[in-house]
Amino acid sequence: MAKNTVNKTRKFGTFLGVYTPSVLTILGLVMYLRFGWVVGNVGLGWTMVIVILASSITFITGLSASAIATNIQVGVGGEYFLVSRSLGMESGGAIGIPLYFCRTLSVTFYSFGLAEAILIFWPIDWGTIPSFALQGLTAVLIILVTLLSGKSAAITLKAQIPIMILVGLSILALAAGVLTNDIHAPLMKASKATTDSGGFWFVFAVFFPAVTGFTAGIGMSGDLKKPRKSIPRGTLGAVLTGALIYLIIPILFSITGLLTLDQLTDEDFGLKTWTTVALFGGLLVIPAVWGAILSSAFGSILGGPRVLQALSMDGLAPKFLSKLSKTGQPTIATWISGAIALLAVSLGSLNTIAQLVSILFLTLYVTINFSAALEGLVAEPSYRPKIKVPWYISILGALGAVGVMFLISPWACLIALVIVAGLYIWLRSKSLEQQWGDVSVGFWIKVARYALLQLKDRSFYQRNWRPLMLIFVKSVDKDLSLIKLGELLGQNHGILTLAHLISSDGSIVDAKRRAIEMEMRKKIAHHGFQAFIEVHTVADFHDGFVEISKGHGLAGLRTNTIMLDWSHDREGQIKELKAIEALRQKDKNVILLNSKSGLTQRGKMIDIWWRGQQNNGDLMLMCAYLIKLNLQWENAQIRILSVTKNEEQKIRLRKGIKKLLPKARIKASVHVFVYDGNFKDILYENSRDSDLVFLGLPEVQPGNEFQIAQNMDELCRGLESTVFVQNNGMSHSLPILLNVLD
């Protein structure tokens, strides 16, 4: 990419770089072939309404594009660049990839149109025009415009100046032809053909492509001297010029005496509406039509490769496609685009593709308007455009574009939306890394801020409890079972944060911290986990563990549950128990996992051993219930097990638990044993084959850490996966269970 920066590229100003290609794309085929038909079908009044409605949508889209362009340093890629830098790479790619093929196939479409326009001079005595002649001439035209644009954008753009003069002369010739002949009162009434053809909105849909293509100049964004200045001036100037001319032409057609109503409403009369009326007949009109089509082809072959170049620079296409020639042209991208356009000639008629292309362009207009609306709504401090557009105006433009898409073709609209959505989902799954910020972050910050403010003055009750978990991990691979347990507990119900601690030994910590965080993100994405990642630098691991746990969270979403793996060495276990005691005083629930061969993917049995210590039964039962909500564990059976010293206590306890479970709305079987021996023996006997065993974690008193650690190790020894739970903050959901033996 460094080589590209030293190329001596020719930069263009507003008139040549933006205004000229945009206005020539607007004043194109539809103006010559369908304007008389529109006037004849709906009359002058409704034609004016159509022009104003259509131009309003394009003007609003131009305003939205200008607002985004004046807020950023605009690079190569035109509309793709604007959308990707506003909504992110995934949204930009979902629009940019179809946009590239739209522009490339447009080269074929316009070349077909120009070939047909040239072959109107095919001698009648030669017979019907053979298909190979049409396709052969189309291929020659594609090669010519590709070679010219690949050689130099300056030559291509300068070639449009005489074309603009020809178009201007044809419009003057039309006006002169009308005013120098008989005129009558304006044709105001709609003809019967309007009803037969589908009414006002059908005519509107036929006309609307006449005002599209105004973004042709935006496509040259990377070749402009001052894109922030040129894009709004050139684009809006072209839209207003087109609207003004389009308000004049229907007046001329509605008052001329040279055309009958039947001629105006005849679709096949087409270009003859101009050649019949214009001064000098077709002498000025036909070259102007050729020029307008050729100009549109030029705009497409200039814009398409630059979109491909931008996609390549952002990593969405092979890197070699961004290589520039000595004159600053994306040569390889241009040759590939020309080759694709040539291949499309073999398809023959491109009417269906042309309709889909129009719909995809409208999808682009929807996205541009939505981007500007979102930028205005979020109103990040960095969003300071020189052209400010109220968000509701941009939304109006987006809704208008969606409406036109359905008017043109509901099926083509549906196909286009499916293509864009499919590309977005695919790019999203690639976990692309972009080097710029986008408005989506600001949008979610605004949503999060609103949600947190709603929680500010609300009290949390028993029914509102959910696990907001902080999991301390040494690495994703080593603590995979712990993360899986957190995912089972929190999926769709809680918030999961993975915290990794590194020692602040005075070395370059920030670079190391960022590298570890990035690696963790990749690994949790690979495993399909949904979690936040934090990497903290601490002087002492266990002191850091306590301090981070105490204050973790934000406003009403403070962490309520701390999770960690049970250490394998006694010294580490004692430190963990001391830290847990500090957390107990801060109302933080604690969950410790000890798993021998990893947590099973599909569990069949979950055991909860309630022994009447603290309020741990509440949290253990809630955890078991949350785990069962996962698809892999939905068939698991929950068992509540307990031990008493005599039969009377057994009956009372079993009866109390069974009475409570319907109130808790949790299905579980109850098993109470009378046993005077060592608890671990009955534990192993009943739970050694269970997939997950919950045990209460007792309060730690200073000096008894060693004994508690030893006892916990003994309990774990005969079990596959053991979860120790200490309930320090959850509301008591099982008060009868807790007091049943009192």
Mean pLDDT: 83
Overall domain count: 2
Estimate percent helicity: 55-70%
Identify low-pLDDT runs.
Answer: 1-7, 732-742
By DSSP (H or I, 4+ residues per run), the number of helices equals 27
CATH class of the largest domain: Mainly Alpha
CATH fold descriptor of the largest domain: Amino acid/polyamine transporter I
How much of the sequence lies in strands comes to: 5-15%
* CATH H level, superfamily name of the largest domain: Amino acid/polyamine transporter I
The largest β sheet comes out as: 10 strands, mixed
CATH architecture classification name of the largest domain: Up-down Bundle
Radius of gyration: 36 Å
> Quick one: how many beta strands?
12
Give structural notes.
- This protein is an alpha/beta fold.
- The chain has helices at 14-26, 29-69, 79-87, 89-118, 131-151, 153-158, 160-179, 192-197, 200-207, 227-255, 261-265, 272-277, 282-313, 331-345, 351-378, 391-408, 410-429, 439-456, 480-490, 509-527, 541-551, 570-584, 616-628, 647-664, 679-687, 705-717, 735-739; strands spanning 468-472, 495-503, 532-538, 553-554, 557-558, 561-565, 589-595, 605-609, 637-644, 669-674, 692-696, 721-726.
- The strands form 2 sheets. The protein has a 10-stranded mixed β-sheet, with helices on both faces. A two-stranded antiparallel sheet has the order 4-5.
- The radius of gyration is 36 Å and the shape is elongated.
- The model is unreliable at 1-7 and 732-742 (pLDDT under 50).
